[in-house]
Amino acid sequence: MSWTGWFWVQYLYAFWVQYLYPFWVQYSYALTRLRNNKNDTRVSDQWASLPIHFLILDNLREPTDHIRVAAVCKQWRVAAKEYNRLTQRWQRWQRELLPMLLVPTATGSKGKLELYSFPGGETSDIELSVPCNMISTCHGHGWLATMDVLEKQLIVRTSKFFWNQQLELRKQELWTITLVNPFRKAAAPIRLPHLDFCYHHTYASQGLDEFRKYGLIPKHIPKVILSEDPTLNPDSYMVVAVCRRLSTLAFTKGGRKYWAQLFTPRRVMDAIFHKSLVLAVLECGNILSVDINRWSMKTKYFNQEKRRFRSEADEAYLVESTKGDLLHVRRLPKDDHGGSGERFMVYKLVFNERDGSVQHVEMKSIGDEVMFLSENCSISVLASNFPQCQPNSIYYMDFRWPTEISNFNLEDETITRYHYSSDISQALWIVHMFNGLC
């Protein structure tokens, strides 16, 4: 053995004797007292006397690191479970968890997904199984929407008058959407009612079929949004499906056997649940609100008489900040002439209840917040909780760079790209609901 190897052996042995062994002796004693006599007031003193090394679990902000610690040995797993039970840490930190990337496995096997930490692109050693290839995240709550589609070609008449009869080829899609939660084995899949769309069979629709053929995520896959966790509220949760290509919003509630559809004058770019309402942004920048109760659906277009922006955005997102404000984020070409690159504009939406209008207040800075944007899910967290993230910036994915994640700095409008070893063009941002080891 070399002298460096011998040095490390001596170092690790000394560390065990001086720190780890005394810690486990005291911890085992305190844990035994806690289980044998829960009413003993002296038990809390035993926990308070634990060495400072036990507090290392407080410094592990990633759930995957928490799992790795618990997997070392049986004693460490017991310690991690007791730590979670006493502190209820993960229940308190759900809104502060850093999003992870949900990526199809490199083998391309159907229904297999992996979680990658961000930034860095390290796999979490957690592989998830889902029943099909087409997947959309349900905003929050750790649920996914898996989709299968049955397509039919229909020949329909375009006029009811016999002297002006024309036949037209259309395509009908019948979507089967299932809600699954791969992070909770006890959560049973929820099959939603069939959702059907009918549209013109054009070259554009054929082009979208080519996207699907080569494994790219076409924009016509509905984006699914949940109002709340179906496990906690099985009868009151609401589901919204956004079909951007058809300018359609579809709504259903837990237990219902049908969808209610709303057709909009322009394409819906994004939608979100905010303060008991469904708010959507159209391609022209106008805002639409939908209030759904048990018997009716009330819609309201804000500032419908005028176009909010002169030009359309490449992408538009609705994001709720950590302070509860609703932000409208627009992704635009870097210059007005459509040059290479992109830029982002952030607006705070201020609603005026008196005259029914909404103001777009431009924000030059989002402060300590950092956004994660995608077509399926958009999230905002505090950068101060995650030193690896850059504050006042936006992380996003672009199909033009299938192995990269880009970061846009709102202060100087610079773009930094993070390279991944695998194709992440189909990746989804997700905040999985980690409740600790129970």
Automatic annotation (TrEMBL):
Transmembrane stretches, start-end: 6-25
Matches recorded under Pfam families: Beta-prop_KIB1-4 (PF03478)
Glycoprotein as UniProt keyword: no
Keywords assigned: Membrane, Transmembrane, Transmembrane helix
Domain of life: Eukaryota
Domain KIB1-4 beta-propeller: 116-406
Xref: InterPro entries: F-box-like_dom_sf, F-box_BR-signaling, KIB1-4_b-propeller
Protein name: KIB1-4 beta-propeller domain-containing protein
Natural source organism: Prunus armeniaca
